[in-house]
Fold this sequence. Notes:
alpha/beta
Amino acid sequence: MKTVFAYPGNMSHAQNAAWALAEVDSLTAFVTTFSYRQDGRLARMLQGVPRDFTRKLNRELARRSIADVPADLVHTYPVWEILRTVLQKGGASPTFVDHVWDIGSHRFDAFVADRYVPFAQAVHAFEYTALATFQRAASEGVARVLHLPSLDNGQYAAIQQRECDAWPELAGPHDAYFKEKFQRRQERRAAEIALADLIVCNSSLTAQSHIAAGADPQRIISVPLAAPPTIAGIRIAVDQRTRPLRVVSAGHFSLGKGAHYLLEGWRELRAGAHAVLEVYGRLELPARIVSGNMDGIRFHGSVPQAQLFAAFERADVFIFPTLSDGFGLVIAEALAQGLPVITTDRAGAADLLTKENGIIIPAANSHALAEALRWCLDNRDRLEAMRGPALEAARKRQWQDYRHDFISALAKGLSARGYMPAFRPPPNASTSKNMER
């Protein structure tokens, strides 16, 4: 089944879905916005630039590479994404950056519809960049698979409004702009969902969210995401139980990630010198929220993945107090470093947790958050014992497992919709030791 996979980015879940299709000889093109190749034209141009100038640039570009899909299958439509990135890095207004993203998303969708759909038997596309593609595909009898990696946007809008009503200081100067855009974008997503033959969700929580919003459950498949390769084993420092408790948070420090509840819970904990909170990720809360008593909190900003994983390995517990996450891949990444997790019932990746490797708390509850951290302070031995089960949970859900399950669910779902996918899933992790490159 000749399949075009269109995704305007390079997140690991999209790369692995496309890789799964390539493994069964179904992928004909991975269409994206920008992909940096170490042997590409841009890399060769940068070789003549002084190294001190390009070091940071090369690190940033390396994060935009697509390594898991054969290079000859990767096709790009980069202009609008480059413009958006330049504007964002240059400090342009968020509304202007969003406007450029909006135009670029629609142009990307139209590009895929015009250049790739006529030669495909199936097309995979992602929310908000699928409408023109699916309209063209429907007219030509091409199978349409929509990926919905986030919870229903209407639910998130309700959460955002609830939080701003309860915490007026969370309101931002651009809220009116994004509120005006919401209905139009919601209508576009609804049209994409209506046109899709099959809808792929990344967790049971995501699937339930869209079903509650009106999506047909018969057209939804849920394939949980996975963890990166795990560390070889747990290394316990000599002072692991006597030094201050090391708590790590990662991801955008924002309303949606429940960052304001983390700050409130940390203040309620009053751990003093007995605990430290290391925060990694872009700070998106208003400055008036991130003020006052910040004892024991250290903000590191965005860092390369290797640095974040090293922080995970040194820490005692990872905390992710999200209010709305279809999955929350950083949870799986923490488990892969042998790190126990505290998260909420609004993270899809909470499915990976048990009482042996983590703690699940109600979302939007700073007291529950403080109590979970207090348990960690009072039970250092038991917390340390959770590291092994955390690592084992990640080992049981690797990306090759995701790819196997994705192809299996895809073949079954497309067959039920009257298509003949004509591919079989590759062996899973238990029967193949050489799947990972």
